[in-house]
Amino acid sequence: MRGRIDTHHHFYPPKYLTAAAEHLRQVTHVHFPRIQQWTASQAIEAMDRDGIDTAVLSIAGPGIWFGNLTATRRLARECNDYAAELARDHKGRFGIFAVLPLPDVKGSLEEIEYAFDVLKADGIGLVTNYESKWPGDSAFAPVFDELNRRNAVVYFHPTAAAAFEGILPHVPSPMIEFPVDTTRAITSLLFGGTLSRCPDIRFIFSHGGGVLPMLAGRIEAITRNRSDLAERVPNGVMPEIKRLYYDIAGVNHMIAFNAVRQLVGTSQLLFGTDFPFWSPQVAISGLEAFGLPASERRAIERENALAMMPQLNR
């Protein structure tokens, strides 16, 4: 198959590498040399080899917030300008999930305006927590209200919360904390009221929603038995969860794939590779091994993304 659209593809602007080098080393460890070597030509070579027409660029964990408000605003603008330049120079090959300087709400509202109105970004890319504050926190409500007003696509990539970073010796955060924090972010948006309040945002969550497929029934059952929780989810737990989108990066085993597929159906699944951490062939081979009908493969690998972001068909 050709014409794939990769919604989980990371890029590393030189200024971001300089600003985030120490943080990246702590999070990525053995992958750090590969990150340093990222170039657009390297990415396009991998895309061409594996039938990917377009990759939507995003910043992975740990994101861009390192404690300084002014520096974070500047870094957000530099990363977004760099992504827009790549999209212009390689027309049709790259989309943009613009990064925001959260937890700075004022700066984020300004960057949303710039990203959409000036850079024509395809969506916004966030991480799952900011200073151990998850996205459903009321402090972030103005940001999501504005994104809802704009009918935005909002993509989430996990990052480990400070409280859990390195909590198990010899266990890297991407192994357990990333999928768990993705589920924390979804649950935060659910019970913080963001999902019901912002129905026009198209949310995408990485790695098949983390551990959500295994916990969704438990979350729903406990909510049903707790009136204080139920009133926070007026549309019900499952209807909110089922309207979200989930990429299949890292969902390379039949058990995990079947869990998220049974939870939300093929229509809510998107192709993602997690490049440059993984070769695109890993995701492609996984889908091939599942023996899906051609129509479902086509939906996951291209059509679902185009339905959300038709401008990528260029």
Give the number of helices: 14
Low-pLDDT segments, ≥5 res: none
Shape label: globular
Number of separate domains? 1
CATH superfamily: Metal-dependent hydrolases
* CATH domain fold name: TIM Barrel
The CATH C-level class name = Alpha Beta
Structural class based on helices, strands and sheet pairing: alpha/beta
Structure description:
This protein has 314 residues and is α/β, with parallel strands linked by helices. It has a single domain (4-309), classed as TIM Barrel. Helices cover 50% and strands 12% of the residues. The chain has 14 helices and 8 strands. The chain has helices at residues 14-28, 32-36, 40-49, 69-89, 105-117, 141-149, 173-191, 194-197, 212-224, 227-230, 237-242, 254-264, 280-290, 294-308; strands at 4-10, 52-58, 94-99, 123-127, 153-157, 202-205, 245-247, 269-270. Strands 1-2-3-4-5-6-7-8 form an 8-stranded parallel β-sheet. The longest helix is centred in the N-terminal third of the chain and has 21 residues, at 69-89. The radius of gyration is 18 Å and the shape is globular.
List the helices and strands and how they pair.
Elements: E1 4-10, H1 14-28, H2 32-36, H3 40-49, E2 52-58, H4 69-89, E3 94-99, H5 105-117, E4 123-127, H6 141-149, E5 153-157, H7 173-191, H8 194-197, E6 202-205, H9 212-224, H10 227-230, H11 237-242, E7 245-247, H12 254-264, E8 269-270, H13 280-290, H14 294-308
Parallel strand pairs: 1-2, 2-3, 3-4, 4-5, 5-6, 6-7, 7-8
Helix pairs in contact: 4-5, 5-6, 9-12
Short description:
With 314 residues, this protein is α/β, with parallel strands linked by helices. It contains 14 helices and eight strands.
